[in-house]
Amino acid sequence: MAEYPVEVRFKDLDAFGHVNNAVFLSYCEQARVRYYDSLFPLKSALDFPFLLVHAELDYRKPVTITDEVEVWIGVGRIGKGSWDFLYEVRNRKDGIVHCNALTIQAYWDHATQSTGPIAPELRQKLEESLVARDTH
After folding, report:
1. 72 near 90, Cβ under 8 Å?
2. For residue 29, what are the β-bridge partners?
3. Region 57-80: what's the mean pLDDT?
4. What is the structure's pLDDT at 133?
5. Which residue of 38, 70, 81, 96 is 20 to 30 Å from 28, comparing CA positions?
6. Which residue segment(s) compose the domain that 71 sits in?
């Protein structure tokens, strides 16, 4: 599991003065990219051997422009050809959780343009970041 700071930008805000709910997916995306890059340094967009196939978010508390946000990411489940990333979007100042999220990734082979079983080297790295579901 890992934590990554995310900058709350003015353009993230909606008419009510808090971060729009759709932006939380972008925050999770930033953490996902940085996490994967820490496992396998990226050189291009084709270095991602997965597709996002599902996302769910549970909003807990609004984020405002003055909040200092970080996204925690860990692996929640590993299947034959897919896995879950678990996320917590929280305030760095007080630890309050603003959002919990889950995404499901399917392994993608760019050469064959198809899904398939997770490559062994990726599976090993994912298993090293496996966390218990109840800690999310």
Report:
1. yes
2. none
3. 96
4. 60
5. 81
6. 2-135
